[in-house]
Amino acid sequence: MARELRATDPDTALAIGKLRKPSVGVWAIDQLAVDHPALITELLAVGADARDAHQNAAAGTESREDLLAATGRLRDRVEAAARAATDMLASAGHAASDETGRRIRATLQAAATGGAPERRARWTGALDRDLDVAGFGAIDDPGNDDPELSAILEPMRQRTSSDSPGPTQDRPAARLEVVAHRHAQRDAARQDEVAARARVVADEKRRQADRLATEARLAAEEASDAEQAADAAEEAARATHLALDS
User: Fold this and answer.
1) What is the mean pLDDT of each run of 10 residues along the chain (246 residues)?
2) pLDDT for res 65
3) Whether 32 contacts 81, CB under 8 Å
4) Which of 63, 144, 213, 233 is at 20 to 30 A from 18, Cα to Cα?
5) What pLDDT is recorded for position 79?
6) CA distance 8 to 18
């Protein structure tokens, strides 16, 4: 993209060129936000639950059973997302080594239970580096998710056995429709971005084609002029030979 924009938008091309290139594992994780957004929102929801459960258990306001249940749900969602990411790598022709698989799992869990910037990057598919799991207590103030993400995650949260909103299938259909609608809005915005980038490329290709067409027309005119000059030169040469023969 930087190469394509260099001629038409050098500032943007320069900014793109400075971006960090992710590892293949992080690339696969980012693709999940596009191809499997439900996996990502589920992961972020259970990650927030697990982080809150750990903090509440440390404060004595949540039971050990609730903590174990929350961490178990997180482990299951990390595994599901990791399998999808390794499948993504395989379909793209990249063999996932054991180390790549370990880094994928660590990054998924770290993003799900980390601070607001990491969680948003995970949600939008904009992670640019591997993350390490620092532990639930390592972030004193993880910050609040932005309102749009919070609205999507809220119906999916299960905080404790006493105040849990219950299994997904028992939640109000209207709230799930809101989640689906927000997913659709985000997907539409991404498609708009893809279309805009494609239009920039198409416009540049059209300008290149127009330049080539102009160059070809000029070359054809020059060739025609050269052919006329050659015909005139040959005619003059014939006339000279006839004069000598006579």
Assistant:
1) 88 85 88 88 89 83 84 91 91 86 91 84 84 60 74 76 42 52 65 74 83 89 90 88 80
2) 86
3) yes
4) 144
5) 93
6) 18
| Residue 7: its H or E element | none
In whole angstroms, give the CA distance from residue 221 to residue 141.
Answer: 72
Nearest residue to 35 via CA among 71, 85, 109: 85
Q: How far is CA 230 from CA 108, 221, 226, 239, 241, in A?
A: 73, 14, 6, 14, 16
CA–CA distance, 208 with 212 (Å, rounded to integer):
6
Q: How far is 81 from 106, CA to CA, in rounded Å? A: 11
Round to whole Å and give the CA distance between 46 and 136. 13
Total residue count of the chain as it appears in this document: 246
Dist CA 59 CA 232 (whole Å)? 101
Question: Quick count: other Cβ atoms within 10 Å of Cβ 63?
Answer: 15
DSSP 9: -
Residue from 143, 151, 141, 81 nearest 109 by CA: 81
> pLDDT tens digits, residue range 42-64?
999 898 888 888 888 888 877 88
Nearest alpha-carbon partner for 160 in 230, 89, 57, 75? 57
Q: Is the pTM of this model over 0.90?
A: no
